[in-house]
Amino acid sequence: MDKSDVIIREGSARLPQNETGFLKAQRQKELESRQKTFRWNNWKPGFPPIIDGKLDDLHLDFQFDKEKKAHFTWNSVKLVLDQGLDTVKGYFQSWEDLENFEHILTRYCLDNTLLENVIQNWNTDYMFGYQFLNGCNPVMISKCVELPDNFPVTHEMVEGSLQRGLTLDEELKAGNIYIANYEILEGLHANKSSQNTPYYVTAPICLLYNNRLNQIVPIAIQLSQTGGDVSPIFLPNDDEYDWMLAKMWVKSADFNVHQLLTHLLKTHLLSEVFEVAMYRQLSAVHPVYKLLVPHVRFTIAINAEARKGLISEDGIFSKISSLSGDGIKELMKRGLETLTYKSLCFPEAIKARGMEKAPNYYYREDGMRIWETLNRFVSDVVEIYYDSDEAVRSDVEIQKFVKDISLHGLQDKTEKFPKGLYSRVELVEYLTAVIFTASAQHAAVNFGQFDWYGWIPNSPSTMRKPPPQDKGTVNLKIIMETLPDRDCSSLVLGTAWSLTRFQENERFLGFYPDMYFTEQPVKQAIKTFRKKLDDLTDQIKSRNKTLTMDYCYLSPDKIPNSVAV
After folding, report:
1. CB-based contact 292:221 (threshold 8 Å)
2. At residue 352, what are phi and psi to the nearest 5 degrees?
3. How sure is the predictor about 197, in pLDDT bands with cuts at 50, 70 and 90?
């Protein structure tokens, strides 16, 4: 072959084992070139590796297009302007009363029925419990089959909250007790405010109960992992402000775990790991490359922006989180160490937490239907190109892709993540998990932030006083001095607003205008996929008409293909 010759390939997808001659050699050169461009690099201790190099140095395909850049910049400018307005007003003090938090909402268009419900009912036990099921962080709650040794709740403590005439042990055995345990926060270093006043971090445990109305409500809260005389167990029949503040401490812990682990690590950073490995190990003509590429659109770009302005040493999160820089690194390290492949497989994750039958768990209901629909589509595509399990085992690019994710992207030296795939079923599940993480899971934990964080007392990002060590010592003044100050509140609200905006021409799940596939069977599979998604959207809309509060974060018409905001 002469050096001046250029090979123009046909558009059809091909497995590497089916290549011969010059095409096989060209494919290998393509990957060798990509591996020089897409290199792994460590950003911060505790964080998973990222792509090496500056975003501006990468090919334009991996950067925001003009429309996305303008949209993202506009939102960022609004955020800065909002923060500037508050700074000029000297909003570094506490708010005077809970109702005053409405002041910073006036600059936003509040055609938001859900947020209005939150503002009205945020302090009810029902609304508090509902958020563990369908709020921003619907993955912390688990069925409780046995109380932790460090959480000495007795039947006498909670008897007044139990409604079926059963003992606490009997309610546990009946499956009516749930728990949210934030032990992963134990011992982390706390942050300081811009005025150098200290923040505080706790690792609370919250016990919840499925009452006779099928509402999940809190029945006991301990604000540490050690308990004892200086960490009492707070109960619903305690003083009004004791109980209110105890719930705020739980929601503050939940805010930090949600933002850093559920959202950042387990959707944004994982999707970047998948993307870098895809570009390094899969040729552009590989069918799996063609399947995945719409689901990594703008992910490297948005993560680069986040590293620059959101999670950098002086970024926004350093100003609104109770955790210090060292605390954030340690939390990410713990999150990565406890991350497993099965936790990315939606049905397995629900089962592991014992949440198969929890009532009114719309995140589970809709997530299962999205997973099953996506799994069927991926299976249809895989079966078009792989005629046997042996074809999967013989696919060197797929094997290197999976191994690169595990050994380099996640630095997993154990068996938590597959090092290879050996059947079509395994391949389908793996690809479903990759796509679900980038699309549905990200939508579920991202786009509700303004709904649930817009009312600051509902999920305070920082706590400015230490947790109470005795009951009967809390009043409204202490609560206002504990909650975020005006400056932090404004920044949280602007951030939540900015991160929940859809792009004007958003590409929602199943919408593939670039059409990487040329084969008719795959085009038909995509058409079938979109029809099922449309049907599911109609079912969810119909269901939501019967609910006081819509759950639409996992409606297919509101799930972008990729992590792009």
Report:
1. no
2. -60, -30
3. confident
Domain count, the chain: 1
pLDDT > 90 in the chain, percent:
75
pLDDT more than 70, % of the chain: 90
Beta strands (DSSP E) in 48-173 are: 50-51, 141-143
Residue 231 predicted with pLDDT over 70 = yes
CA distance 218 to 236: 8
Could you tell me the residue range of the domain that residue 408 belongs to? 28-40+64-138+267-558
pLDDT tens digits, one per residue of 263-283: 999 999 999 999 999 999 999
- Position 3 scores a pLDDT of 47
Please give the Cα distance from 311 to 325 (Å, whole number).
9
Q: Is 159 exposed, middle or buried (0-12, 13-18, 19+ CB in 10 A)?
A: exposed
Residues 6+ apart with CB under 8 A from 150: 205, 225, 226, 227
Q: Does 106 map to a domain?
A: yes
pLDDT confidence of residue 98: 85
Q: What are phi and psi of 298, to 5 degrees?
A: 70, 5
Is the model's pLDDT at 87 over the cut of 50? no
Q: The domain that contains 115 carries what CATH number? A: 1.20.245.10
Q: 380, 371 in Cβ contact below 8 A?
A: no
Q: What is the largest CA-CA distance in the chain?
A: 86
The vertex-290 CA angle with 284 and 293, nearest 5°, equals 95
pLDDT tens digits along 97-126 = 788 888 777 766 556 679 999 999 999 999
What is the C-alpha to C-alpha distance for residues 340 and 338, in angstroms, rounded to an integer?
6
Residue 123: inside a domain? yes
Rounded to whole angstroms, how far apart are CA atoms 214 and 442?
27
Query: For 45, which DSSP code?
Result: T
Instruction: Give the residue-averaged pLDDT of 144-171.
Output: 97
Q: Helix H segments across 344-395?
A: 346-352, 362-385, 389-393
Q: How far apart are CA 367 and CA 229, in angstroms?
A: 42
CA distance 45 to 106: 40
1: tokens are 């072959």
**How many CA atoms does the CB half-sphere of 363 hold within 13 Å?**
24
Query: CB of 249 within 8 A of CB of 204?
Result: yes
Q: Is 412 helix (H, G, I), strand (E, B) or coil?
A: coil
- Report CA Rg, the chain: 25
Distance CA 497, CA 491 (A): 10
Residue 339 lies in a domain: yes
**Does residue 248 sit within a domain?**
no
What residue type is 81 in one-letter code?
L
Indicate if the pLDDT at residue 295 is higher than 80.
yes
β-strand partners of 104: none
Residue 2: pLDDT over 80? no
Q: Is the pLDDT of residue 36 over 70?
A: yes
Q: Which of 269, 357, 323, 320 is nearest to 449 (CA)?
A: 320
Token digits of residue 135 = 């709020």
pLDDT tens for 488-514 read: 888 898 889 888 988 888 999 999 998
